[in-house]
Amino acid sequence: GAGVSQSPSNKVTEKGKDVELRCDPISGHTALYWYRQSLGQGLEFLIYFQGNSAPDKSGLPSDRFSAERTGGSVSTLTIQRTQQEDSAVYLCASSLDATNNQPQHFGDGTRLSIL
Amino acid sequence: KQEVTQIPAALSVPEGENLVLNCSFTDSAIYNLQWFRQDPGKGLTSLLLIQSSQREQTSGRLNASLDKSSGRSTLYIAASQPGDSATYLCAVRGGGSYIPTFGRGTSLIVHP
Q1: Backbone phi, then psi, for B29, in 5-degree steps?
Q2: What percent of chain B has pLDDT over 70?
Q3: Chain A nearest CA to B2, separation (Å)
Q4: What does the pLDDT read at residue A1?
Q5: Among A43, B1, B59, B66, who pairs with A35 as Cys (CB 3.0-4.6 Å)?
Q6: The CA-based dihedral angle spanning residues B95, B66, B55, B107, taken in that order and rounded to the nearest 10 degrees
Q7: How far are the Cα atoms of A30, B72, B76 from residue A56, in angstroms, in the given order?
Q8: Cβ atoms of residues A109 and A42 within 8 Å
Q9: pLDDT tier at A16, thresholds 50, 70, 90
């Protein structure tokens, strides 16, 4: 069966450009998370979606970051006016629902490099 | 605020050894704890999920235990193999939040 799919797998762009990262969760999973993983750092939570509820955006580092989830499925993370410190691996995870007995399943991430 | 620490940060062992990886957390009011492995250039693969009411979970050569009162979990790997080489992370969910807190991981190398 299909797991969590992220695209692109790699993205290189110039400072100041906007980028869009895509996540396709496992079919039927209502909870979706975005994380950032920088070299030598742990996973940094960015944003969490659960069904039709308002997303938890408490982890977004600045107003240059935004995310949406259309139709309760595919999610897009947008970074505007990229900076070099945005370079990292962006990971998406989904789980069946928001109850605490469901494991998270991760995609392989998008490696973002800002020149 | 929950803090999760993993010790050791790195470990190199010969094939065949039994291993213990440690994960400690500061707030014992947790819902669950999940262990993952991450291979280079890949995402996280779920290994075991322990609910707060459970003491341990087993899958093949892996056994994870949970002691909430002391704020600790251990991942035991029996008869390690080179294919076990990866970074192992633990994540704790609790405190009324659905957002897990991750440790920084233990980088494991099993050499033939």
Answers
A1: -85, 70
A2: 100
A3: 13
A4: 55
A5: A43
A6: 120
A7: 14, 28, 34
A8: no
A9: very high
The answer to whether A5 contacts chain B (CB < 8 Å) is no
Q: Given an 8 Å threshold on Cβ–Cβ distance, is A56 in contact with B105?
A: no
Under a CB-based contact definition with an 8 Å cutoff, are residues A44 and A90 in contact? no
In degrees, to the nearest 5, what angle opens at C-alpha A75 toward C-alphas A93 and A96? 45
What CA–CA distance (Å, rounded) separates A95 from A35?
14
Cβ-nearest to A106 among B32, B41, B43: B43
Neighbours of A18 (CB within 10 A): 11
B22-25 — which CB contacts under 8 Å span 24+ positions? B22/B72, B22/B73, B22/B74, B22/B106, B23/B72, B23/B73, B23/B74, B23/B75, B23/B90, B23/B92, B23/B103, B24/B71, B24/B72, B24/B73, B25/B71, B25/B72, B25/B73, B25/B92, B25/B101
Query: What is the rounded distance in angstroms from the CA atom of residue A35 to the CA atom of residue B106?
Result: 19
How big is the CA angle at B68 (ends B64 and B73), to the nearest 5 degrees?
30
Q: Using the beta-carbon criterion (under 8 Å), do A103 and B46 form an inter-chain contact?
A: yes
Report the amino acid identity of residue A47: I
- Edge-first strand order for the sheet with A5-7 is A5-7, A19-24, A75-79, A65-69
Instruction: For residue B106, give how far its alpha carbon lies from the nearest alpha carbon of chain A (Å).
Output: 11
Question: What is the nearest CA distance from A20 to chain B, expressed in angstroms?
Answer: 19
| Residues β-bridged to residue A35 | A45, A91
A62-103 pLDDT tens trace: 999 999 998 879 999 999 999 999 999 999 999 997 666 788
